Amino acid sequence: MIQRRAMIEGGQFAYQINDPRAGAWHILQASYITGNTTDFWSSSSSLILPTTSYNSSVSKPANIDSQVFLAALHAAVDDDLYTVDSDRMIYTFVVTVANFNSLYPINANTTAVVSSTTIPIGVAMGRYSEDTYNRYNSDNKGNPWSLSPSLGSTTFTEILNNVFTAGGRYMARVASHTTSD
């Protein structure tokens, strides 16, 4: 996704500086990458795969990985290919949230008291389902990390509302596990 965005932006820049030959070359490279990115959609799992080929030292049979969301946030362009509001990304969010909701015992708590008010809190998510690293050792279920907010919706208005709601709920989860010091 990053390479694709770089080629698109490189092509746009080349056209801006009046180098149409370089612009066309970059846009062509982006189209090749775009063709390959469609391989990352798994219709059988209803999610965007984090990779199509794994390093032998990393096992991710569930194919659930928060890097997909980071790629959408940092590398997507406004063409609906794996953007944060694309149907395929939303399916991926729903599958991922459901997976992490049942994976971590911390998610059994669905409310927290923040400023003397009980409010619903979001699902704590980790890097990927099979992650075993928790900073201290490599023999457990890993842990949730704060770079992975969760949301889910079916229309643009619902997406916006859920983004704000999920963001608030996620911050409530962080606040409920943070000391006041």
From TrEMBL:
Protein name as annotated: Uncharacterized protein
Source species of the chain: Linderina macrospora
